[in-house]
Amino acid sequence: MNVLLINPWIYDFAAYDLWLKPLGLLKIASFLEKFGHRVSLIDCLDRYHPLLKRRYKKLPSLRKFDCGKFFSQEVEKPVFFKNIPRRYKRYGIPPEIFEEELSRVEYPDAVGVTSGMTYWYPGVFEVIRRVKRRFPSVPVVLGGIYATLCFEHAREFSGADYVIRGKGEIPFLKILDSIADTKRDYSKIFWQEEEEELIPAYHLLSRVNSIALLTSRGCPFRCSYCASYLLESNFIQQNPDKVLDKIDYYIKRFEVKDIAFYDDALLVNAEKHIIPLLRGIIKRFKGKVRFHTPNGLHARFIDRKMAELFYAANFKTIRLSFESTYPKVQRQSCNKVNEEDLIKAVENLACAGYRRKDLGVYIMVGLPGQKIEEIIDTIEFVHKTGARVKIAQFSPIPGTLEFKKALKESSLPLDKEPLLQNNSIFYIWNKKITYDGLLKIKDLVKREGGK
């Protein structure tokens, strides 16, 4: 069958391409290709779309290591956001370019649309609306994070014919088989083994300068604000040798220079996973490619040996997860890290060769009940280590413990309207942090945190 996959726009107050790739969609594409389906892809977040450069003089400049701003256009704010003093935008290619892409593709037998953050659903709805107008008789399948966490909302309002909750590969295959009246024994598809061999279909993208890499699924921790375990109940790590072979393939096939590890728990089971990976990278790829960890590493696991391996393996971007200096917040994040852990990790990384000011440390801002004094104390502590603070603004994610707390604290229908789960607007329901307080926090973060 002919399948069209679409990565939709982002509608938000802010969006930035930090090696962001439609990885789930690319995995589904490879999976479907393996079973003989013809797959095409429209990526609405394509910063390198050839028509952008031809038609628009002012484009966002490229940043270091293939990161940068998306092309964006201001759009009308939803009614919930009318009093938010920020501009609301559609990030990605303009709609007219999207329509041209739709006109070029072979008439599809089915269309698959992915979804990211729950509050990005306006972009999902807009894509489905345009697809339905262009291909009225073609079934649309919706999956991804929003579809999983807000399943009933997606089923009722998205306009999709099918909504998939959770991992989408086999359910999507079953839908296609039902459309084509194909009989198949799904019990013979051993998914864990299949996934280790599967290489995401990066060949469908218009340009590949960097790769987003996942070497595991799920997370063994159960942090009160995180939905990782809701999206994947099991924690499964891939064979390090298989990962190294994939890296080798990306370098040879696409000549990429930057690869970002997006694992939620990259350092867990270190002796069997990350340490063999780092040693393999040093042996096979040293100097050929730059590596990055934008998702936040567990500082507790970074001893001197591991820090030296990261440096020798050419990891250029190191981000550490810290959350807060306050014991209550640390407990909510499963006691993954405390002040002493962070101090030791920064010291070990500095001794290995990293400049302290190049190390980023994520802290949580906007948790239910969190006071501005707690956040200021945490910022000042991180600054004393010499590292730089990276704010992680809280989003009330359905199904998490912190979502339940936020629901009690707020008078807004956070459970009924996913737009209100936006991490940029926590201060409109958090009773202890105002917008002026948020500006104060951001101003404090800008101060240099050591040499």
Summarize the structure.
With 451 residues, this protein is an alpha/beta fold. It has helices at residues 23-34, 50-55, 95-104, 121-134, 145-149, 151-157, 169-180, 191-197, 228-231, 240-254, 274-285, 304-312, 327-332, 339-352, 372-385, 401-409, 435-445; strands at 2-7, 10-12, 16-17, 38-43, 68-69, 72-74, 89-91, 110-113, 140-142, 162-163, 210-213, 216-217, 236-237, 258-261, 290-298, 315-323, 359-365, 388-393.
How would you characterize this protein structure?
The protein is an alpha/beta fold and 451 residues long. The protein has 2 domains: 184 residues, Rossmann fold, CATH 3.40.50; 236 residues, pyruvate-formate lyase- activating enzyme. The protein has 17 helices and 18 strands. The strands form 5 sheets. It has a 6-stranded parallel β-sheet with strand order 11-14-15-16-17-18, with helices on one face. Strands 4-1-8-9-10 form a 5-stranded parallel β-sheet, sandwiched between helices. Helix 11 links the parallel strand 14 and strand 15. Helix 10 runs parallel beside helix 11 and helix 15 packs parallel to helix 17.
